[in-house]
Amino acid sequence: MTRVRWLLLVVIVAADLAALFAWRYRREHRYDAVIRNSARRYGVSASLVKAVVWQESRFDPDARGRAGEVGLMQVMDDAALEWASASRISGFDHDQAFDPVTNTLAGSYYLSKLLRRYTNTDDPLPYALADYNAGRGNVLRWMKGNAATNSAAFKSEITFPSTRSYVDSVTRRYREYRDEGGP
To answer: Counting beta carbons within 10 angstroms of the beta carbon of residue 169, is it exposed (0 to 12), middle (13 to 18) or buried (19 or more)?
Structure first.
C-alpha cells in the first residue's frame, strides 16, 4: 500500500509540474505574433521587445507601474502619446495602452527611437535600455568621458543599482530569446 501511495504522489507531482510548464510556456508565447509584428514595424529585434516585455510585466497585459506605466511594455503616458501622434491617431487615451497590440506598438516605437538615439556608441543597447528604465536625464549624467561611447564604461557609471540590474537582465533575456530563434 505504501508503494502505491508513493507512486500516486509521484504521478500527482509530475502532473502538476507538467501543468506549470505548460502554463509558463503559454504565458511566454501568447503574444509572440503581436511582438513580432510590432518589432518588424519599427525595425527592432522581436527578441529584444520580448525581453523588455518579460522584464517589465512578465507578459501581464494588465500590469500597472507605480509611476503610471501600463501594459506589457509598461509604457508611460508621454511615450504612448508620442507614438499615437507619430501614427496620426487622434483622441488617444493612455488606457488604450492596456491593449497588447497598442502597447507593443507604442513600446517598440519608443525602443526604436532610443536605439537610434545612441548610434554613436559601440553598442547602443545598454544606453537605450537605461534610458527606457531611468530616463534620458540620467543617461546623460552617466555618459561622461569614455562612457559617452564605450558601453562597458557606461554600464559601470550607472549609479542606480536597479537600472544596472535592469540593463543586465534585459540583455541576458534578449540573448536567450535570440539564441532560441526569437518569437
So the answer is: middle
Mean pLDDT of the chain: 92
CA 86 to chain centre: 21
- Cβ count within 10 A of residue 127: 27
Q: What is the pTM of this model?
A: 0.86
Q: Is 157 a catalytic residue?
A: no
Any idea what the Cα angle at residue 155 is, between residues 170 and 73, rounded to 5°? 30
Express each pLDDT in 150-182 by its tens digit: 999 999 999 999 999 999 999 999 999 999 887
Q: Which long-range contacts (CB under 8 A, 24 or more apart) does 83-88 make?
A: 83/109, 83/110
Among the options 56, 69, 82, 176, which is catalytic? Answer: 56
Say how far apart CA 176 and CA 28 lie, in whole Å: 13
Burial tier of 49 (Cβ tally within 10 Å: 0-12, 13-18, 19+): buried
Beta-ladder partners of 70: 64, 75
